[in-house]
Amino acid sequence: MEQTLTIRKSMQAVIQAEWQDLFSDKAAVLQLENQVLPAYLKRMRWFGGKARPSMSVLIYQNIPIEAGNDFTHYLLLKVRYPEFPTDIYALPIAFIAERRFNDMPSEAIIARLDNLVSPGYLIDAVYLEEFRNALFQMMQHSKKLLASNHYPMIADGGKLLQNSSVNKISSKVLSAEQSNTSLVFNNQFFLKFFRKLEYTINPDLEIIRYLTEQEQFHQIPGYAGAIEVLHPEKPPMLAVMLQRMIENAGNAWDWNLQHLQRFYEQVMETGFDKTQLPERPPKHHISWEETPAALQQLIGQEVYQQASLLGKRTAELHLALGKDAKNPDFGPEQFDKTMQQSYCDSLQKLLIQKFDLLQRNLARIPESMQAKATEMLDDRENVIEFIQKITTQPAIGTGIRTHGDFHLGQVLVAGNDLVILDFEGEPDKPFNQRRKKTSPLKDVAGMMRSYRYAAYAVLLTKFENAPQRQESLFTVADLWYHFVSRYFLGAYLDTMKGSHLLPAGEAFNETLQIFSFEKAIYELGYELNNRPDWAIIPLISLAKFVKFYL
Q1: Which residue among 157, 258, 274, 363 is the one 20 to 30 A from 526 at the CA level?
Q2: d(CA 146, CA 232)
Q3: What is the per-residue pLDDT for 406?
Q4: What is the mean pLDDT of the chain?
Q5: How many CB atoms neighbour CB 193 within 10 A?
Q6: Partners of 90 in the β-ladder
Q7: Using DSSP, how many helices (H) and how many strands (E) does the chain show?
Q8: What is the CB neighbour count within 10 angstroms for residue 447?
Q9: Is 279:477 a contact under the CB 8 Å cutoff?
Q10: How many other CB atoms sit within 10 Å of the CB of residue 223?
């Protein structure tokens, strides 16, 4: 143990300076910017620039925050790359005495401060309880940090926080790998500490705060507080967001995967896949009573109930988001020709980009799909023509704010209910695009695609070394998807009855299909870049789309 501790200490970068003088010592600051911080960032899982060959770091803002008997320094770092846009990352820095070194995880330690008076270590302050508590108290008291040498930092506490009975604060850092850092306070509040910051209105904060204040939809982790850094000429940067913590049994993606494991096991035990499979009713709504008895046994009524509940909750979310006609950020808007054309152009661009990627990677996808993929590529111009026809007629209907990246992983199983979270939108899009209004059917299509993905994901992992068995079960996977996605869609449409937010008649089918097509194209690009074997999932859907509509 002692030897391990000695090795850990010897691996740390060393800065010759005292804590109180660190940021006024030009040599120490240069060492931080040129050596210590670049090396530290590259070790962090939340840092997105690790793969880039070179970078430089500049301490852009230094905001002192009182934490216990000392100050921490909330640093905004400009990270510059030769061929990429500059990023801004948040790194709060604190000092600990040498005796506390062993209490800190390796990822907390930034460097050693060596001096004759008070040697110790620079650490990421999120691992310091005093700093975590300071953030919480800033929101409790809606504190403002104002000074001439840094941008204002403004904290806000929502009703959930103000009405809570938190006296003694306890907190911990969660260890899950993600692009931000997550903290928990008193097992009542969940805090998202943002690492990569942007001067923009964050859609997650905007939508969660709106829904919490409107009190029209409660199946969310309600807004409790936020801390933002203000700029005199740009939108604020969201530094911290506090929400009600939800007791849960995991997300709906994992829940469905577990039930699909049992589904396939029972299919093989009973030989169901070798029998005459039931017809798939060509309708939007399939009730449990309409599900064949043999399929009921395999799917399980609890899957029907959860899919139906999710359809109901999704509709309630959309009704809440499309209710306030007087609020320009949330009021529903009828799509005009300019909006339709903009959507058409962006979809065509996505299609061309991903089809070009497919052309270059044909040899990497499963052999069984290569012929169909080639046929689809040959039909490229017809697909573009179809997109132009559908997206330029008044079919998409009314636009509202939506979830934007809706799938089973964004839904928590909370007791007998479901909670929807993470309203940040598609991660590969700029924030200003994520805030654009669109048809609620985009969320519906995303969730239906997620059910299809779940059905195929289990096959691809469970039968990874048995491709023939895998392929023989694709029809059964499609059957599970068809029924379960219609449980979801039927409950959604029942709850949306009488709403003006959805297109009617054939326009409904076409709009839902075009959003499903867009999602599948997006998935194709992701899989070709990350898991070529899994490209079979979107390819099967795209091939069916082309065959049916062209």
Answers
A1: 258
A2: 13
A3: 98
A4: 92
A5: 20
A6: 76
A7: 18, 18
A8: 24
A9: no
A10: 25
Tokens of 45: 């899982």
Q: Which tokens belong to 322? A: 């499309």
413 token code pair: 């199983």
Sign of torsion over alpha carbons 49, 54, 59, 64: positive
Cβ atoms of 225 and 139 within 8 Å: the answer is yes
What stretch of H or E contains 238? strand 237-244
The position carrying tokens 């909330």 is: 74
Cα separation, 240 vs 249, in Å, equals 25
Q: How long is the chain?
A: 550
Binned at pLDDT 50, 70 and 90, residue 155 comes out as very high
Helix residue ranges, H only, 66-202: 129-140, 159-162
226: enclosing H helix or E strand: strand 223-229
Please tell me whether residue 463 adopts helix, strand or coil conformation: coil
Q: Which two tokens stand for residue 169?
A: 């604060």
Radius of gyration, CA atoms only, the chain: 26
DSSP conformation letters of 375-398: HHHHTHHHHHHHHHHHHTSTTS-E
Tokens (6 digits) for 448:
């239906």
DSSP states of 170-188: -EEE----SSSEEEEETTT
Residue at 134: amino acid letter: A
The answer to whether the CB of 401 falls within 8 A of the CB of 211 is no
What's the mean pLDDT in 102-117?
A: 93
**Could you tell me the pLDDT band of residue 7, with boundaries at 50, 70 and 90?**
very low
DSSP SS3 for 146 = strand
Q: What is the C-alpha to C-alpha distance for residues 495 and 491, in angstroms, rounded to an integer? A: 6
Please report the DSSP string for 309-356 in residue order. Answer: HHHHHHHHHHHHHT--TT-TTTS-EE--HHHHHHHHHHHHHHHHHHHH
With vertex at residue 65, the alpha carbon angle to CA 37 and CA 179, rounded to the nearest 5 degrees, is 45
- Maximum distance among all Cα pairs of the chain, rounded to whole angstroms: 83
Handedness of CA 404, 408, 409, 412 (dihedral sign): positive
Residue 271 has pLDDT above 60, yes or no: yes
CA 132/CA 60 separation, integer angstroms? 22
What is the pTM for the complete model shown? 0.90
Coil, helix or strand at residue 114: strand
Give the integer Cα–Cα distance in Å for 90 and 92: 7
- Calpha distance 424→207 (Å, rounded): 9
Identity at 214, one-letter amino acid code:
Q
Residues 6+ apart with CB under 8 A from 354: 521, 522, 524, 525, 528
